[in-house]
Amino acid sequence: MRRVNLGRLEFEYESGDPAGFRSGMARFGPGLGAEITGASVYELPPGQALCPYHYEWGEEEWLLVLSGAPTLRDPEGAHTLEPMDLVFFPRGPEGAHRVQNDGDQTAYVLMFSNVTWPTATVYPDSDKVGIWAAKGSPDNIMVRRESAVEYFDREA
Question: pLDDT value at position 90?
């Protein structure tokens, strides 16, 4: 039986993450054999956010607060969450979200979703769109909407 103990996770931090977005992640879906769903626990120190405000076009996401009191920003505003709160983010603009820790204690949240390739993520605050063709693909790209071109641009 494959299993993971959520109380004994090791969190990885990306050295290139800017201040305000330094959270630790423990991804365990693939290690348990998951292919079409994903799950990760995030360690969210005070003053840090998981990622910028965004929404997904290909994936539904869920958030379960394990401990702490993170702040959730969604289209309705900002909400303080508490342990055992469960939130669902549908695809599209109505599922936009950002999770940050405005408190003084480290928060831990579990996020899980379906895993879809290809997919797109929209970042409304910075007017960017991320296109993800496949894990590790050279076709993955982050662009500003203003860089859009017409369909037949550069075609002969």
Answer: 98
Q: What end-to-end distance do the CA atoms of the chain give, in Å?
A: 57
Query: The tokens 């348990």 sit on which residue?
Result: 32
Contacts of 72 (CB under 8 A, 6+ apart): 63, 78, 79, 80, 81, 87, 97, 98, 99
Q: Name the residue type at position 144.
A: R
Pairing status of strand 37-44 against strand 24-27: antiparallel
pLDDT in tens, 91-141: 999 999 999 999 999 999 999 999 999 999 999 999 999 999 998 999 999
Within the chain, strands assigned E span 24-27, 37-44, 55-56, 61-67, 71-74, 77-80, 86-89, 98-100, 107-114, 119-123, 128-132, 141-144
